[in-house]
Amino acid sequence: MTTETKHTPVKWRIQKGYEADFIIEPAFGPVVASVWQKDKAPIIAAAPELLEACKAAFKVICSKGIYSDVGFQLAKAIKQAEPPA
Length: 85
Description:
Elements: E1 12-16, E2 22-26, E3 33-35, H1 41-45, H2 47-63, H3 69-81
Antiparallel strand pairs: 1-2, 2-3
Helix pairs in contact: 2-3
């Protein structure tokens, strides 16, 4: 697994959109996602922080030599969230 950041390295925010009900975008930069349901927007906007939290938790679990379902779930989530190399 790589630790290089592939997403926009700033906090994403939710804004009212024009074509979609809500858009997810960094403070400066292009739109990341458009969503129609307001309840879906926060999880998408939190994606960069959630990915970093998963990486940190996985690092701690591995450093402690703990191999459990949680570690495997974290590894799977991280792999799924990162773009192909």
